[in-house]
Design a protein that fits this description.
The protein is α/β, with parallel strands linked by helices and 578 residues long. Helix content is 65%, strand content 11%. The protein folds into 3 domains: 309 residues, Up-down Bundle (ABC transporter transmembrane region fold), CATH 1.20.1560.10; 153 residues, Rossmann fold, CATH 3.40.50; 74 residues, P-loop containing nucleotide triphosphate hydrolases (Rossmann fold), CATH 3.40.50.300. α7 packs antiparallel against α10 and α10 packs antiparallel against α11.
Length: 578
């Protein structure tokens, strides 16, 4: 809670002004029972009717003042909670953006969405309602108790004594319901993740006729959620009636014992009536204690999960004195680089010296470590041993933003945002003009299908590019990379969904456009890599073959075997024609 209060205290004025309005409103409200006492003792019993007008005007004044102060209090507290909500969400989102790839490898989207939405909303509700009511009820309790003891300490002691077990019950409830809500929050994450994955993968579910299986799986999760909700409601049902019973008992004791004091002549009827008004100011906070306890327990569980994420330190970050080069030429050197992930060796003893403007092709079997090589260049992961330098600067000493601003990537998993085609391409360069976008699309061979769309560049793309073919998505991703005009370009299996003719034209365009860029091409087809300056064949995390297309064919090794396999049908067809 302390860290949540740090967010609240940033807006001191929005804390102090409504708090002052609340305090003044409570103090004014304390006069109501006393004025009722005056009406009973002085006006009705004492016959001092001339006081009636003044008392009634005072009651009206109190009502109007409390209305104005109440509006001020409610409005400013709502503004405060809204600002804290915005700050907390923004800080959480900003921190998530700073976390490395490795964090997201083990964290699912549903859980992060639950933290940003549900957990932050729980904190917002606590500040907006719970915090205000807690402070307000505490002030009411303290002032009303003081006045009760001033009026008659015996009657006050009897009424307040019954509040002790209520406080004990509330503390017990807070502990138990906090544990239950923690489980409920975790189950909510499971439900959100299941729903998110099934909605995103609905086409796959339908393609394999898995609707019934997924429905039953979700039903099982939902039953567990229902069970935990019933457990929480059971606790509320168990403890809330006890609190209600004890608060009502205090009222009964006040009437019974207070009536006896009136009979014995120790207090007046007006005092007893006023006592009734003040005791209600105690009963209301005690009745609210159970509800506030429930809300605070939810807030505690949610705040813990939020700050668990925010306390996760990114293991890849800038050094204190990070180097910011004026320009990057793209001279990349791997010096005895090894990379381990989750205690598994991915890359071992890689040594490369790649000159600026070179085109490097990487081939190899699935899982051989091809993508890991380019992930290390962008420092999405750090090397376990050795070093990678760009233009003589160790990338661990280079400013991360500068490094990545000089890189342009087409990832293996093509991702497009739910936005227009033009905005998706502008991800590569927010300042790009429409002419530059068109030029990039031409070079990416994307204009042929964009021109056929009714809305052209203003066509809205569905989630993750739904509605476009694999090849169309890849060409848009390549256009997004081309418009960046970076010193280092990486194409990770970026032409796998293209036909041979389109791939040939696209690669020819790339060779003409980016002669000064150091380019990495990861591919499985010989046609995509044969013109590269250097071709690497990776196997089990090691470079087992390295050379040009002609050199690797002359070695008659793994690259040669792939070449023969891919061009076998073509050679057979040639022999048939002859």
């Amino acid at each position: 809670m302390k860290r949540v209060f740090n967010y609240v205290w940033k807006y001191k004025l929005l804390v102090l002004v409504p708090s002052a309005a609340m305090l003044v409103s409570i103090i004014i409200d304390m006069f109501n029972p006393y004025l009722v006492k005056v009406i009973v003792d002085d006006i009705i019993k004492g016959g001092r009717t001339y006081l009636l007008t003044g008392v009634l005007l005072a009651l009206v004044g109190i009502t109007l003042s409390r209305a104005v102060l109440g509006y001020t209090k409610e409005y400013l507290y709502d503004v405060l909670s809204a600002k804290v909500n915005i700050d907390l969400k923004q800080d959480l989102f900003d921190h998530i953006q700073s976390l490395p790839f490795s964090y997201f490898d083990s964290m699912n989207t549903g859980e992060l969405m639950s933290r940003i939405n549900e957990d932050v909303e729980n904190v917002w509700r606590t500040i907006s309602f719970g915090l205000r009511l807690f402070v307000e009820n505490t002030i009411y309790f303290v002032i009303a108790t003081s006045i009760l003891f001033y009026l008659n300490w015996k009657l006050a002691a009897v009424c307040v004594l019954i509040m002790v077990p209520i406080a004990y019950i509330a503390i017990k409830l807070e502990k138990k319901i906090g544990e239950t809500y923690g489980k409920l929050s975790d189950q909510s994450v499971i439900l959100n993740t299941a729903a998110q994955e099934n909605i995103a993968g609905v086409r796959l579910v339908k393609a394999f006729a898995r609707e019934k299986h997924e429905i039953m799986k979700f039903l099982s999760m939902n039953k567990e959620n229902y069970k935990l909700n019933m457990e929480q409601n059971g606790l509320i049902g168990k403890y809330f009636p006890q609190i209600e019973f004890l608060t009502n008992i205090s009222l009964v004791l006040m009437i019974a014992f207070g009536g006896m004091l009136v009979i014995w002549g120790e207090i007046t009827i007006g005092t007893l009536v006023a006592f009734s008004g003040y005791i209600n100011m105690l009963i209301w906070p005690m009745r609210m204690l159970g509800w506030l306890t429930n809300m605070l327990a939810q807030n505690g569980a949610s705040a813990k999960r939020i700050f668990d994420i925010m306390d996760t330190k990114p293991d890849i970050k800038n050094n204190d004195n990070a180097v910011i080069p004026d320009e990057i030429n793209g001279h990349i050197v791997f010096d005895n680089v090894s990379f381990r992930y989750n205690d598994q060796e991915i890359l071992k003893n890689l040594n490369l010296n790649i000159k600026p403007g070179s085109t490097v092709a990487v081939m190899g079997t699935t899982g051989s470590g091809k993508t890991s090589i380019i992930n290390l260049i962008g420092r999405y992961y750090d090397v376990s041993e050795g070093s990678i330098t760009i233009d003589g600067i160790d990338i661990r000493d280079m400013d991360l933003t500068t490094l990545r601003n000089h890189m342009s990537i087409v990832p293996q998993d093509t991702f497009l945002f739910s936005d227009t085609i033009s905005e998706n391409i502008r991800v590569g360069n927010r300042k790009a003009s429409m002419d530059e976008i068109i030029e990039a699309c031409k070079n990416a061979c994307a204009m042929e299908f964009i021109d056929e769309l009714e809305d052209g560049f203003d066509t809205m793309i569905g989630e993750r590019g739904i509605g476009l073919s694999g090849g169309q998505k890849q060409r848009l991703a390549i256009a997004r990379a081309l418009i960046r005009d970076a010193s280092i370009m990486i194409l990770d299996d970026a032409t796998s969904a293209l036909d041979m003719e389109t791939e040939y034209e696209l690669l020819r365009n790339l060779n003409n456009l980016h002669k000064n860029a150091t380019t990495f091409i990861i591919a499985h087809r010989i046609s995509a890599v044969k013109n590269a300056d250097i071709i690497l064949y990776v196997e089990n995390g090691r470079i087992v073959e390295k050379g040009t297309h002609a050199e690797l064919l002359s070695y008659r090794g793994r690259y040669y075997d792939i070449y023969c396999d891919q061009f076998k049908d073509f050679e057979d067809m040639e022999s048939e024609v002859v």
